[in-house]
């Protein structure tokens, strides 16, 4: 695997791995895979015994910088929803720019290590400015000062 992931400055190569091989090599060669995908193309495809059109976890390929993560589009479920959400970030065109963290090379020639804990968290704050439709179910006199409406918002 070390030979397959070797980066050559004067060549661009393509490597195809099954989902099983990627999971196996990501454990032992995670940073080598990230370094490879900075200048070369990595394609991940479903294992051959996946006959029921189900999908595998796409985050493993995306986290290591894989440019092509193949999907079974006839199946439905959580991993297909993740894929749809990922590509919705760019209008559903099928391409999302790789994050800078996967492209940067730090001092001492180090690259992003997918196994390390991230020191940052992101919080999503949502303000609902207007709700519509609730007034259809209640008369204006239904509420008073002691029993205000109790509404909730679900974001998905």
UniProtKB/TrEMBL annotation:
Organism: Buddleja alternifolia
EC number assigned by the record: 3.1.4.11
GO molecular function per UniProt: phosphatidylinositol-4,5-bisphosphate phospholipase C activity
Catalytic function, reaction form: a 1,2-diacyl-sn-glycero-3-phospho-(1D-myo-inositol-4,5-bisphosphate) + H2O = 1D-myo-inositol 1,4,5-trisphosphate + a 1,2-diacyl-sn-glycerol + H(+)
One GO biological process term: phosphatidylinositol-mediated signaling
Protein name: Phosphoinositide phospholipase C
PANTHER family linked: PHOSPHOINOSITIDE PHOSPHOLIPASE C 4-RELATED, PHOSPHOINOSITIDE-SPECIFIC PHOSPHOLIPASE C FAMILY PROTEIN
Annotated ranges, domain PI-PLC Y-box: 16-102
GO cellular component, one term: plasma membrane
Assigned keywords, A-Z: Hydrolase, Lipid degradation, Lipid metabolism
Enzyme class name: hydrolase
